[in-house]
Amino acid sequence: MGELHVIDHPLVQHKLTIIRNKDVGTQQFRQVVNEIATLMAYEVTRDMPTEDTVVETPIAKTTKKTLAGKKVAIVPILRAGLGMVDGFLELIPAAKVGHIGMYRDHKTLKPIEYFVKMPSDIDQRELFVVDPMLATGGSAIMAIDALKKRGAKQIKFVGLVAAPEGVKALQEAHPDVDIYIAGLDDRLNEDGYIIPGLGDAGDRLFGTK
Ligand code: PRP
Ligand code: URA
Which residues are noted in the entry as 5-phospho-alpha-D-ribose 1-diphosphate-binding (predicted)? Predict the structure, then answer.
């Protein structure tokens, strides 16, 4: 079963509460989503492998740790996942970025895939699938299906707000994928929105609607 990590760091919680406020506008929403993404990138890379390397300080030669050079890629689910990419790249500037376009049909709530463009070597990379919202879980499940079909082996899902229904569905569909979120909310409403949530993440990020 994929582990669920709720990042309870005070800075993350504070910033998440800021963007829940319906009166926060596009510019601030976008900025704070990226700030939270950077803080979450710090947490989700905690188990990155390191290796010994020799370094010469002004005083002495010593053996210390550096990253073992594992390849990673950030995979935003369009549109709203785009809001987390720059925040991740702040900490992992050399990462490749793959895109998966997906939208939910408003009546059925089923995701519809419309675009996939991945780095050619995703089978050799650790992938961070980013999307602020995990509601029914349908979009994340289908996005990860698409990645596995293309050879992906190591995947983490990173979101901001999740409904328990979405966490359960994703854990059942992809038990090998760990889930990192900033807030676990109460439930979904009849329109598939997370309660209390933060509304439509794509619309709030891009000023549509
Ligand atoms: C939102 C969100 C997720 C999805 C979550 O995207 O960004 O991708 O809904 O819902 P689910 O867990 O029930 O699948 P949306 O379909 O609104 O597309 P958009 O980002 O392009 O607006
Ligand atoms: N997608 C969103 O953007 N918000 C929700 O609450 C649910 C799905």
Answer: 79, 104, 131-139, 200
